[in-house]
Amino acid sequence: MSRTDDDTWDITESVGATALSVARARMLEADADCPLYTDPYAQFFVEAAIEAGWRSPFLDEDPLRAKAMTAYIASRTKFFDDFFTTAGANGVDQAVILAAGLDTRAWRLPWIDGSTVYEIDQPKVLEFKDEVLAEHRATPAARYCAVAVDLRHDWPTALRQNGFDPSTPTAWSAEGLLPYLPSAAQDALFEQIDQLSAPGSRLSVEAFGDVFYSAEQLARRQERMAEARRAAAEAGGPELPDVTRLWYMEARTDVAQWLTEHGWEVSAVTAIDLMKGYQRPAPDGLEDPVPDTVLIDARKL
Ligand code: SAM
User: Fold this and answer.
1) Ligand 1: which atom is nearest the Cα of residue 16?
2) Which among 119, 160, 178, 231 could disulfide-bond with 100, CB atoms 3.0 to 4.6 Å apart, if both were Cys?
3) How many beta carbons lie within 10 A of that of residue 248, not counting itself?
């Protein structure tokens, strides 16, 4: 399961399966007392994947941790939903969702007239998504354009070839992505976004902090993961993948600082504060309750 420079994946494999875990968390939000959003398509993806043999690696036998992660994903989803809705309200009608996975914003958000939503991800991930949504006759709420390309390759050319217009302001998102990119590819990504962004463009990012990439936290995560794998094996359950092996644990450029230095006006909120604001705080008494992240909302001046 270790990474290589040119690795590819299907939806139930390697990094692809992480999109399913997020879809599953979004599906579970429907059971919350006061759901932060409704994603009616998440369940279809999960059902199709289970039919194809996928088993969720979520640690349901640790209910407190599962609750923390579900609240984290719910808050994160709401943050990016609000980001795109606000960008639209300010007249931005071109959106690019990087590493879209099973994100269904193009189908479920109230896009302003004339909007185009580009989604970038690996080909098999987007194929799976297309098949499931077509089977359920889902109709996008904006002009939708899937761009099947790896973000470590020349994705700007692929985006332009699909009609993207760099002269008009764009709303970008990078959610659930950065640890899956090598540090150098992350730097290149933000340089490319900056080059493709006309003034007035907006960018939302889930940026991971030093604690997330620290050897100490990685060791604690791996210990918990090993324990969960042992428990699952003893219970005769499926073999649990270790998501930590999909991440590039390398020192990172500070995204908020880099954007500020490159002419973006930046605001950022920690995940912990975001969750409190949405009345979905992480439960007390957990070590490393949620990833060490900040959610960035930036505007190009
Ligand atoms: N952003 C989506 C969301 O929050 O629902 C998906 C998040 S999922 C954790 C990670 C996604 O990143 C997967 O869909 C995966 O295929 C995509 N991804 C990771 N590295 C990528 C790369 N180098 N090129 C294209 N997609 C990538």
Assistant:
1) 16
2) 119
3) 16
**Residues belonging to the chain:** 301
Please name the helix (run of DSSP H) or strand (run of DSSP E) that holds residue 130, with its range, or none: helix 123-135
The architecture in CATH of the region 14-300 reads: 3-Layer(aba) Sandwich (3.40)
Please check whether residue 282 is in contact with residue 67, taking contact to mean a CB–CB distance below 8 angstroms.
Answer: no
Report domain extents, the chain: 14-300
- According to DSSP, the residues that pair with 96 across neighbouring strands are 118, 172
Distance CA 32, CA 83 (A): 22
**Maximal C-alpha separation, the chain:** 57
Ligand 1 centroid to Cα of residue 151, in Å, is 9
pLDDT digits (tens, 9 = 90+) for 109-122: 999 999 999 999 99
Please write the tens of the pLDDT for every residue from 30-73: 999 999 999 999 999 999 999 998 887 665 567 888 889 999 99
Q: Please give the distance, rounded to the nearest whole angstrom, from the Cα atom of residue 100 to the centre of ligand 1.
A: 6
Amino acid letter, 229: R
| Beta-strand runs (E) in 42-184 | 94-98, 116-121, 143-148, 171-174
Residue owning the nearest CA to atom 8 of ligand 1: 19
